């Protein structure tokens, strides 16, 4: 095959495919050049003057390496991975680092196997990471516990790409024995270190961790890059850090940044895309198009040690997009390993969904009454305050009950009856309740409302399959079933969007803070590794103090 590639590259033999007279992204020199892009088999063999068996007129078109989402959870889109890929690939993303952390917390290794099986045969590089923290910390109650021995066994048996985000930063810094063993399993280890700095960050990095997607400020990003980390600029549906973090990128350090989505809702995925959306926003913030494209492609491949990907250059994998602009927003063709896999926003491949019967009926709770949702207010008690566009919260002191919502975290894996309560400021939900079985990362039931009656109805309406529900004035007015582990629907992406539209239409009937996305934000308010305070099934937890402000 190399002989043929050399013959084609030299111009002595016709290429299999040539994009003629295109504007080509040169990510090595940071520029665009004019030329023909020649493809032989699954590789690019040259940019110059070529003829091909198949020729496409690239006049007024750009050829750009396809994109790499450096960190995401398929589960957060609430559809199967295969349905996610049918939307993402046509927008030019053909490589993914997927951490099946969410389903592992509910279904263990069986959940990871389901995710792997569901993407088989799809034209994309889906690198599954081994969830490192199941549960996220020793304070959580998930559906499964995966210790270091289980992690090592799964990595070896399933051929996983690396160790997923190490959220248990106290365990790393404190040299927890099980955490230390996990860090030895894989060469690639993703990080999760919000607000960790100074000597604590130094200690964390000595665990062999090389990336972080939790930066909230320019100073945080600069410190982490300066200590050798790759910083993943995250632009999700609730966590939107790009407009802040691009201010940290300059000509000297831009090769240390990647793009990721982490958590994306399906409406955003279909309407504005994922990594392509990050490219567009970065350019709008003043970044040059070629730098944005380089961050979205070459940087990610090099960060993860994947050679000869992420560039339009000889002997590089023929994974590229043909589009109408330098920002890659008007994607016409998507090629993967030299094959056309999407055209004009539509996938040209079939999927074979994996069986999911073993992932159903995952919700197990004790019978509840209104009393379970009643919580005594005391002036001066600690509460949680939430904000738009971030999952970072603030510990506040309550001065009055008015305007506060009650939030509950209800253990749903073993029907233990354990419930944590707190008051939340910032949702401003009135006249009802919402509840869901998506609650990072243990995925217990999370409910929020302004009265016990509606909260009870909301939780009971989840059933044993789980989902998202909206209750208003004593009536269930919206529901999205999530039959797969209480995290994903078994519907097609289009049907899920239609059902979610009805759910959000019901939500719009409610009175709440319209600057937040309630379900996405609520799903993060139980994740006790993100500052400042979070609620789990035991009580209100201070992440900074690593202790409970109160239990119950």
Description:
- There is one protein chain.
- With 552 residues, the protein is of the alpha/beta class.
- It has two domains: 65-303, Metal-dependent hydrolases (TIM Barrel, Alpha-Beta Barrel), CATH 3.20.20.140; 360-551, no CATH class.
- It has 17 helices and 28 strands.
- β18 and β19 (394-397) form a beta hairpin.
- It is globular, with a radius of gyration of 24 Å.
- The chain starts with a helix and ends with a strand.
- 55% of the residues are buried.
Helix content: 25-40%
Low-confidence stretches: none
Percentage of residues in strands: 25-35%
How is the biggest beta sheet arranged?
9 strands, mixed
On the 0 to 100 scale, the average pLDDT is 95
CATH fold title of the largest domain: TIM Barrel
**How many DSSP E strands?**
28
- Overall geometric form: globular
Which superfamily, in CATH terms, is the homologous superfamily of the largest domain? Metal-dependent hydrolases
Number of helices: 17
Structural class estimated from helices and strands: alpha/beta
Instruction: Note the gap between the termini.
Output: 66 Å
What is the multimeric organization of the chains shown?
single chain
Counted up, domains total 2
